[in-house]
Amino acid sequence: MALRDHGTATLAYFYFDFRDEEKQNLRKSVTSLLVQFSAFSRPCRDIIYRLYSIHGMGAQQPGNGALIDCLKEMLAVAIQHPLFIIMDALDECPDDTGLPTLREAVLDLVKDLVHQRIPNLHICVTSRPEIDIQTKLKPLAVHAISLHDERGQKFVIASYVSSVVSSDGHMKNWSDEDKKLVVEKLSERADGM
Questions:
Q1: Taking a C-beta distance cutoff of 8 angstroms, is the pair 170, 145 a contact?
Q2: How far apart are CA 24 and CA 5, in angstroms?
Q3: 102 with 182, same domain?
Q4: Can you name the residues that pair with 12 across neighbouring β-strands?
Q5: Is the Cβ–Cβ distance between 109 and 68 less than 8 Å?
Q6: Dist CA 106 CA 90 (whole Å)
Q7: How far apart are CA 109 and CA 25, in angstroms?
Q8: Half-sphere CA count of 93, side-chain side, radius 13 A
């Protein structure tokens, strides 16, 4: 049974979806975390309701700073149990527009949360090994695990591609040599995906 099932841990998860521009920025990630934390804690619900009230009962949108302050306040009141924030696929957050870029803004949030030194807060960030992400997160990390060049991961990807190629109706008439080439090329260029 998980800690969450016993009411002794809270988990909030956000996926930076490359297919959805709305899920590639700081604002969407913070609002998602706020909603998730408020769903499991009366004090957190009170905090988000106060933010809602201050902003005209939803008539005005709070700025990113107000949302981040709200998140920090929630994390501060919810410290009696372990808190877990998972930010998945951060590399899908663009790093090419704006100052700071969308990705830099999220990285700055992670840095800020780590520097808050909130007891029982655990943050997990997953990403491909992009240099800007590694540079910002490496000094903050207690543990860092790289699967990028792991042989086992490459084998799993190759097995998956092979099963798709062998079961796809459009490829059933392809030669075994062509199928093998597709598996090899897609597996070696999968870049961990």
A1: no
A2: 30
A3: no
A4: 85
A5: yes
A6: 8
A7: 11
A8: 28
Considering 140, 163, 179, which residue would you say is the last residue of a domain? 140
d(CA 19, CA 92): 9
Q: In whole angstroms, how far apart are CA 95 and each of 32, 91, 188? A: 21, 8, 25
The one-letter amino acid code at 20 reads D
Is residue 110 within 8 A of residue 137, CB to CB? The reply is: yes
Q: Do residues 109 and 43 both lie within one domain?
A: yes
Tens digit of each residue's pLDDT, the chain (193 residues): 344 445 578 899 999 998 888 888 999 999 999 999 999 889 999 999 999 999 999 899 999 999 999 999 999 988 778 999 999 999 998 888 778 899 999 999 999 999 999 989 999 999 988 899 999 998 888 777 766 666 666 777 778 888 888 887 787 788 888 888 888 887 776 665 5
